[in-house]
Design brief:
Helices cover about 55% and strands about 10% of the residues. It has nine helices and six strands, in the order ααββαβααβαβαβαα. The strands form two sheets. The protein has a four-stranded antiparallel β-sheet. A two-stranded antiparallel ribbon has the order 1-2. Strand 1 (about 130) and strand 2 form a beta hairpin. The longest helix has about 80 residues, at about 1-80. It is elongated, with a radius of gyration of 44 Å. The termini are far apart.
Amino acid sequence: MKRHSAAIMRCSAIKGGVRSVGLWKRGGRSGRRGERVLKSQPGWRGVNQVRRLRILMTVIAVVILISVTAGLLLVWYQLHPSLEKELFASSAPEYSEPVQSSAASSAPDLLILVGSGRGLMEGVVPDLTEQDGVQVDKRLAAAYEEMKKAAADSGVALKITRGYVTAEQQEALYKQKVQELVAAGYTQVRAEDTAQSLVERGGYSEYQTGLAVDFELTGGTGGAQSEWLLVNGPQYGFVLRYPENKTSVTQKNAEPQHFRYVGQENAQRMRQMGFCLEEYVSYLSKQSKK
């Protein structure tokens, strides 16, 4: 009887052990499965970080590529000065080199700059003739005769109202302006400073070259003469000397009646490039140094 009881107890102990082992195995597998689940989340984070890193590297590579390309283009542009001319090119026909007067001549150069701070050089003497009762440079006069006839054929009457003046005449105009300002309440010093911005002193007026003229504008700005001259003037060598949109360059207020003769080729190139006289002369100077 005792033996039988002991055997039953051993069997129960074995079965209990087997169940314990089974539970341990199942628990172990469950633990490992849970462990794998826990480990999978950090894995996804790693994948996302890699993707973000790749995108960031791609963006950086593109930025570097653009920067290098821009740098190469800049270097290429600087090494090819002819590109500057091509930027100003259009469908209009090409023109020959700007017309300039001979160095041996005493006549003023067609592109001479004269104004406040730029005095007329000694020895420069214009070769004058008369048009509309006003003295002008002979080169201007020849072009004006053709232009005046073409304007008349279009029903527009042109007339020059001001042309060449001597240094003495110009100085007298300056002093007259000073007196007018003093009479208006300006101090002498302020009147002289203000007058110089309105009327050049003797020796500093481009009217002394014989290449600058004022036209009668019966309709004012926007009138028949003004519009015709702006459109057709360059074909005959005349350009608006002080355009309204170039005051920061010329340092002069707009003067719709004031035109300058620079020669046909120069005038057409200035219009093609959108330059006033100061800009055009500066452009030619830079080109001559290349």
